[in-house]
Request: fold
Amino acid sequence: MLTSVAESAARLTGSVMDSVSGLQLLGLLCIAYIVFSAAKLFYRRREQINALADFPGPKPHWLYGHTIEKEENLLNFIYETSKQYRYACPLWSGPFMSSLFTTHPEYAKVVFGSSEPKDSVVYQWIVPWIGKGLLVLSGQKWFQHRRMLTPAFHYDVLKPYVRVVADSVNIMLDKWEKHFTINESLDIYPDVSLMSLDSIMKCAFSCNSNCQIKSENPYIKAVYALTSLTRFRVRCFPYHNSLIFHLSPHGFKFRKACSLAHAHTGKVIQQRKEILKDEKELEKIQQKRYLDFLDILLFARDEDGKGLSDKDICAEVDTFMFEGHDTTSSGISWILYCMAIYPEHQTKCREEIQEILAGRNTLEWSDLSKLTYTTMVIKECLRLYPPVPGVGRVTTKTMTFPDGRSVPAGSRVGVSIYSIHRQPDIWEDPEVFDPLRFSPERSASRHSYAFIPFAAGGRNCIGQQFAMNEMKVATALTLARFELAPDLAKPPIKIPQLVLRSKNGIHLKLKVINTVKA
Reply:
């Protein structure tokens, strides 16, 4: 019996020793993995330091890099830095990630003139929502999609959108007229955002969502949630880790909203396919109604006669919704803010607009080309407040700049559009609001990459004409009905997120000046 007990004890001891050995081995493997990962990070850091050796810049914090700057100070920090380190300087996001920020048209020309893919650091977070459309595609597939989608932004397609956008703008203005209070300001950004979303729904799907009046539409709520959660992820450093975000409550909400948005887009695509089965040509559809973005996508064909897959169509529609909604909301809101703080230009624009409208409360396509002074004002607003303050690329080969300096493959290169638009050696008195900079005489000799609110080169914004038209319509109809003034107690605080936003909203005081309805 004692022998049996001794054997059992020996077996138990051996089992425990095996378990301890297993745990020790697991622990050693974990330590080895951590050491290996840390070594990779520090090796990558050393590579980046060497790659950027020719580009002096401000000294980064050892842990935070240059992200120690407050969010609201970041744009001005890059701008002020560009005065000291001309053309380009490296900026660090933490200890292991750097970007070469270019701040001069000559450098921007090299970046935009290349075919390098966009930096996926932020865009990768929205791919689960918008898929791989034009915004994030690269290489041959990007070229194929770009060529197939270009007809969607032909002026013949854009013409009827002017009336569509005007209707959406007037819904917003009717709300303002009904609810405004004298001497009290209104944060216009939420309403402008809803108006832009309403317009894009009509132009993308021919869908009258009525979201400006009733925002309970599940798809509208999903788009808003996705936009808000993406912005929050940009600001929240721990959420930059995909696993942490996935396991968080915000990650759960993001996935749920993605499912809702994709289900809606997929359903609309299938319904439209059924409707279009008997329609063989776009011209026949155009005789019945205006063409929307989905029509163009469903009929798009490459040189081999092959159309886009349902997955590609869904990605392009979701990309159009994201880019067309958020960027124009930013642009329009900052334009109206500029009108409020520069009343003399607001008055000149209004005089031009009232002469063109002649008592009407809507705009036609033919009116847009007559808005000469208003267009110059809009461009000056976009110069000072570009909706997308910066863009990035990742080099796949050595990129060499005009002064002979270069960065190797694998480098992140950013273009600070905000800084380029304020460079004193390009723009005379850059902080002064002067719309006449964009007169034909003064624009003729300007560097072609000095004004780039929609980026430039082969990967410029395919929808820039659509965006400009929407901004013109919104500006013209608003100034025709309201006098705008700033709320001096609540000046906007600029923050660069996916687009240029205000941390505390954009608060304006409104005064009704014209309620005539034609």
About this structure: The mean pLDDT is 87. The radius of gyration is 27 Å. Residues 2-51 form the longest helix (50 residues). The first strand starts at residue 88 and ends at 92.
